[in-house]
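USER: Please consider what follows.
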Amino acid sequence: MRTILITGPGGSGRTTVAAATAWEAARRGTRTLVLSADRADTLGAALGAPTGSAPAETAPGLTAWRPDAGERFRADLLALQEQASTALDLLGSARLDAEELTPLPGAEELALLRALRDAAAADTFDLLVVDLPPAPQALALLALPEQLRRYLRRLLPAERQAARALRPVLGRLAGIPMPTERLYEAAARWDAELAAVQLAVEDPATTVRLVAEPGPAGADAVRSAVTGFALRGLRTDALIANRVLPDASPDTWLAALAAQQRKSLDGWRDEWGSAGTSSAGTSSAGTSSGGTRSAGTCEVHEVPHLGRDPRGAEDLALLPVPLSVTARGGASGPLAWPVVDRLADDGVLVWHIPLPGAIREELDLVRRGDELVVTVGQFRRIVALPSALRRCAVDGASLREGELRVRFAPDPDLWPRTR
């Protein structure tokens, strides 16, 4: 199943673009599911049919689903309360009833992740269109499965489960409480669920579409989002300029606004489209300075302003949203982070990490054991080093043409010796 993740700055019209994308795919005969986590039924308003907690067909071949975060939150909390009933009774706790439980902030996003996982596992549809929250929240949401799995591995290492039968004895000998069987079982279940979500997000058939209105604020938001998704290894294959005004207008105010949009669109095509060129240099510290351009990163598509909020199939049909996008060099799927062997020429291995739009001043690298902490502006990711690089020391880094290149020199004490 192919998945298109759609996000952008708040108020950019990403839900409308998601609805139009799903509607056009279904019109062409593709079995399509569109997901949204919005509490207000903005998706239903765009589709012209209400959506709710159960998947429902809103047009031939098109199913819409807005998962109910409250229902799942109540079920999970009541189940946890039941599992901990013995400890709660000892504490004299008063049980919570389903009617008094209110979802906490973030419950909608978690429900969306679960729905994404379930849709991918069901394999009932050919295309899944996901209306994500605004870009900063979307990036935090998509990072959650990997981060939580890392926490679980650190707090409850899987190899410690080998001594299950010995835990009661060890507890008596050591005089300290040992983790219970149920704790490890819960951790394993959580890890499996998080892995399923992570697998769906990182699937080779998953891509990102950014929706933004052309303008100075939109340009900054787009650059930040493209870089953030690249740090997660996700490819942005299309930048959709939404609500583009016509060039010719007798109204001087609208004409000036249209001219500003056109200037922004030219800048987007220069920076992200196929006509872009790189002009980054290299600083004395070994990291590029100046430009942030990444030629050919994604296609730029214009969606016109209809003069009203699109509502229903007739309006959605007027929005020329892209379905198939040809990325640079025919590439598709997640961004590759290859390790290039330059031992013979330069005595180093080079790890190539695509970070289109990144700026040297916002970039920071820290080696922690077998992990590399990469920070770009407000985004951070902790990634495990490939096995070959674990036996090396960081020898420098450079940022060129939207790609971070980290050099690793073999550690003589760890690297295999040659005769």
Observations:
- Confidence is low (pLDDT under 50) at residues 275-293.
- The chain has two domains: 2-70+103-152+199-330, 339-410.
